Amino acid sequence: MRNLIERPRRNRRSEGVRELVRENRLHASDLILPVFFHEDDEDTPIASMPGCTRWSLSGLIKEAREAFELGIRGIVLFPKIEEQLKSPDCAECYAQDGLVPRAIRMLKEELPELLVFTDVALDPYNTDGHDGLVVRNGQGQLEILNDETVAILQKQALCHARAGADVVAPSDMMDGRIEAIRETLDQDGHHSVGICSYTAKYASAFYGPFRGALDSAPKEGDKKTYQMDPGNIREALRELALDEAEGADMVMVKPAGPYLDVIKAVRESTTLPVAAYQVSGEYLMIQAATEGGWLDRKAIVQESLLGIKRAGADIILTYFAKEVAAWLRGS
Ligand code: PBG
């Protein structure tokens, strides 16, 4: 035997020592569960996201209770809006008796301690499927209006806050929306309603299954004039500086797995909590590869999330949240 001074394997030799020196761990309380729901009384399996369900309102409450009992602190709401309620001006997104405010009120009544996050963006309400208001310019091309959209997002965020949302999460990527929403919330007395900004949201093909779940894909064109270019990272820091100056309480990177470098850069550049969203396409790849037993689901899911934490995320939005929380409990 050689007398090696350094033997890193000493710190790996038993489960006890490995646990002792482990640098990052998953906790149920780091996770946020995204939930889909609709007006129907039926709980419907989502064809584009096998294993996920579009809940009725009563199914949503049941799902939220199960998540809460597993130690998950927050859920984020994604409504499927009925076709006849969609319009070019997206007025349904701030209707006080709409599906989202009703869901918030029920959730806060049944589970007051569960944090309710809401998505602030127009796509589920828009006949065009875009996150902002759409006009056709002189050359016949689609244009997504910025400031006009922000004015609607302010009403949408206010509607959610009035219904009792804990945190509003603007996912639209319009310029200046964080400041505008903060101002609107404060003017109406909602000083303690938080804003979790989708700070670096990329124009990603990984959102495909989500758009299938809500029937919210753009009817024409893509989202590249507002969501970020996948080649960019400095631009994420520019967005971060703006969101901090505009009053965001939490910042998010999305997608997560293919953007670990962005999570790390954002983590190193801010003192705010950093969230990362393991999106529908990331879910689907793991789901598909584990369904037939090709990969070990429990190990792969946890490793994928641990990578996101190690990169610097404090909070992870994941469709696996309940499953992981149950594993962490040992069931
Ligand atoms: C809507 C929104 C999207 C997602 C979250 N909020 C879709 C999009 O921007 O097209 C994607 C989430 C996922 O894919 O899991 N603004």
CA-to-CA gap between the ends?
43 Å
> How many structural domains are formed by the residues?
1
> What is the alpha-carbon Rg in Å?
21 Å
Strand content: 15-25%
In CATH, the topology is named: TIM Barrel
Write the element-wise H/E pattern from the N-terminal end onward: HEEEHEHEEEHEHEHHEHEHHEH
Number of helices: 11
Description of the molecule:
There is one protein chain. The protein is of the alpha/beta class and 331 residues long. It has one domain (25-329): TIM Barrel, CATH 3.20.20. The chain is 38% helix and 17% strand. It has eleven helices and twelve strands. It has helices at 15-21, 57-69, 99-110, 147-163, 177-187, 208-214, 234-246, 260-269, 280-291, 297-311, 321-328; strands at residues 31-37, 44-45, 53-55, 74-79, 115-120, 134-136, 142-144, 167-170, 194-201, 250-254, 274-278, 315-318. It has an eight-stranded parallel beta barrel with strand order 1-4-5-8-9-10-11-12, surrounded by nine helices. A two-stranded antiparallel ribbon has the order 6-7. Strand 6 and strand 7 (142-144) form a beta hairpin. The radius of gyration is 21 Å and the shape is globular. The relative contact order is 0.14. The structure holds ligand PBG. The site of ligand PBG has 11 residues, from helix 6.
